[in-house]
Amino acid sequence: MIGLVITYFVLNESKPEVKTGPEADKLAQQMLMALNKPAWDSLRYISWDFVGRNQYAWDKQQEIAIIKSGESEVVMNLKSMEGQAKNAGTLLTGEAKDAAMSKAWANWCNDSFWLYAPYKLFDPGVTRGIVDLEDGQTGLMVSYTSGGTTPGDSYLWILDDNNKPEAWKMWVGIIPIGGVYNTWENWQTLPGGAMIAQNHKMKLMDITVNDVKAGQSLSDIGYQNDPFTF
To answer: Rounded distance, CA 104 to CA 83, Å?
Structure first.
């Protein structure tokens, strides 16, 4: 217990002072320009593997996702959260379906955020602010007041000279230590020009986004028939 307390006080970092206003929105727009947000917005399909644990396919236009974890497979409308759930190929109903849908939604909220968080700077309920960093650079603090499963989380984006993210620091509900640092690196340019980071390194673990496929047709993500129906 004493060791945990010491670790907390050594590693914990208070949330820095944030200045809101037009300068923050300008920096956020520059970050989105560096990552080619118009290309992300126009992208129809994307699929990926999250740390070898969960697999996803997403029809961005219809906002329907296939969420796989082990023998569980859920097809979910991300707006209504309606859909169907299977386990080992068997269609689930009742409480079993509800549990599978709830778990799939929690997985989606966490895992998809590591894929496309940089494109969510102007989502509803998001606030933006400027932070003066110790090295004289300027960071972008983004806070989510609603949405997902942990509203209230904040992320301090650290950008390179071209306004592309290098890392962020997190103040999130599921981690008791504030200011946890992890990288955004190994950027992949998707068909059309949007960019996603495949590797996130931190002290205790690494997070990887693998086997990323994207395009404007189902065949670009490995499907011949439409899997986004239920």
So the answer is: 11
Helix (H) / strand (E) containing 189: strand 185-189
User: How far lies 176's CA from each of 13, 16, 24, 110, 179, in Å?
Assistant: 11, 16, 27, 17, 10
Query: Which residues have CB under 8 Å from 152's CB, separation 6+?
Result: 143, 144, 145, 173
DSSP 229: -
What is the per-residue pLDDT across 136-148, written as a single tens digit (0 to 9) for each? 889 999 999 876 6
Q: What is the DSSP string of 7-70?
A: HHHHH--PPPP-B-SHHHHHHHHHHHHHTTHHHHHH--EEEEEETTTEEEEEETTTTEEEEEET
Residue-wise pLDDT tens digits, 159-190: 999 999 999 999 998 888 899 999 999 999 99
Q: Provide the whole-model pTM.
A: 0.89
Instruction: Give dist(CA 7, CA 177) in Å, integer.
Output: 9
